[in-house]
Amino acid sequence: MVFLMENRSADCINPGYQDLYLKEQLRVKELEAELQVVRDQSRTYSRELSHIYQHSKAKKKQLADTNAQLVKYASDLSTTFLNLKGAHKELQESYRDTIFRLVLASEYKDKDTGAHITRMSRFSIQLATKIGLSQSEIDNIGLAAPMHDVGKIGIPDQIILKNGMLTDNEFSVIKTHTTIGALILENSRASILQTARMIALSHHEHWNGYGYPAGSKGEHIPLAARIVALSDTFDALTSRRPYKSPYPVDIACELIKKERGKQFDPDLVDVFLNNIDDFVGIKREIDEIEPLISSYDFIWSERDTMFPIH
Questions:
Q1: Could you tell me which residues come within 8 angstroms of residue 303 by beta carbon, excluding any fewer than 6 positions away?
Q2: Non-local CB neighbours of 141 within 8 Å, separated by 6+ positions
Q3: How far apart (Å, rounded) are the C-alpha atoms in residues 183 and 196?
Q4: What is the pLDDT of residues 112-146, one digit of tens each?
């Protein structure tokens, strides 16, 4: 009786509410399905994020290890560089010392040769620096300059050390020191010796073309030879020689100025004279014993009057 009444009550439910109920049930099932998809995606994302984190952690450690290794490499490289720099400096000093001693051996009878080599090399470096040459060019000139007169080893002592005037024949002989020097220094693969050969051959060429041995003119004369020619002449003028007393600096500068555009490159002369205090400072530093002579005490020698520059 009661069962019949319940069925009858269910049958009496409004059909519109029943459809709504069924739709809500269907919607609930759809939402549950979507929720399950979200849960599955969340689990997947969680696993992937965990993997990424672990990978990132490993990468971070790897990067830290790599950075530590690079720091060590940098430190080792710095040490190696300092060692190489020290070895290079020692090699350069050894090279310079060897050159100095070989040149001394070729001119050992001239008591002033050692100081002359040092002075004119320093003058050449100073002049090359003032005109803005590269450091490698400056170093090359500084090492090569002392060999400019190496060819004098082939000139008889009685001519090299003669106190008085040279005869025409003796002057012709002494001029051959340029070609002798070039022969001694030729066929070397070392850039310093190549520069030295060029200087030895051309440091007596004149800007106006009246020098020797080839009569080269102007910029056809190698720049290194032009630099050494001026430096060598200033030192020769202001230093004691067997045939002459040292010139006072003002007289030496006046003679060099007169030869501007004749014997010497005019631009180099301008730079030299504009910086004369630097060159005098080098000379004073090296010649601590013998003071520079005053123009009041200077007396022209016989050879001075004939060859005021040479």
A1: 164, 165, 166, 243, 244
A2: 124, 125, 128, 133, 195, 199, 224, 227, 228
A3: 11
A4: 556 888 899 999 999 999 999 999 999 999 989 98
Contacts of residues 254-257 at CB distance under 8 Å and 24 or more positions apart, as own/partner, are 255/308, 255/309, 256/230
In terms of Cβ atoms closer than 10 Å to its own Cβ (0-12, 13-18, 19+), residue 195 is buried
pTM (predicted TM-score):
0.66
Report whether 235 contacts 119 (CB < 8 A). yes
Residue 298: count of CB within 10 angstroms of its CB: 14
List the beta bridge partners of residue 264.
260
| DSSP conformation letters of 55-105 | HHHHHHHHHHHHHHHHHHHHHHHHHHHHHHHHHHHHHHHHHHHHHHHHHHH
pLDDT tens profile 43-82: 777 777 777 777 777 777 777 777 777 677 677 767 776 7
Q: Is the Cβ–Cβ distance between 95 and 255 less than 8 Å?
A: no
pLDDT tens for each residue of 225-280? 999 999 999 999 998 876 678 899 999 999 999 999 999 999 999 999 999 999 99
**Buried/exposed code over 7-39 (b: 16+ C-beta within 10 A; e: otherwise):** eeeeeeeeeeeeeeeeeeeeeeeeeeeeeeeee
Q: How many CB atoms lie within 10 A of CB 133?
A: 18
CA 45 distance to own-chain centroid: 60
Token pair in block for residue 27:
């919607």
Q: Which CATH number is 116-306's, of 3.90.640.10, 1.10.150.20, 3.10.20.310, 1.10.3210.10?
A: 1.10.3210.10
Domain extent listing, the chain:
62-106, 116-306
Q: Are 231 and 120 in contact (CB under 8 A)?
A: yes
Which of these, 287, 305, 273, lies nearest to 239 by C-alpha position? 287
